[in-house]
């Protein structure tokens, strides 16, 4: 299995890979974004997205009013 760490430094083991589609708010509407080669770990009860990986692939993100 491949290991990865969450933002809180907790380590998880991925037991598989696949694809998911996530809804991304774009300011007016919601766009669907397909993420491929994602890691699956049954230990993680939520979806983690690496902003660094998205940046590597040319995406940008804006966080505001949080």
UniProtKB/TrEMBL annotation:
Retrovirus-related Pol polyprotein from transposon TNT 1-94-like beta-barrel domain ranges (all copies): 2-59
Pfam families to which the protein is assigned, alphabetical: Pol_BBD (PF22936)
Alphabetized InterPro entries for the sequence: PolX-like_BBD
Protein's name according to its UniProt entry: Retrovirus-related Pol polyprotein from transposon TNT 1-94-like beta-barrel domain-containing protein
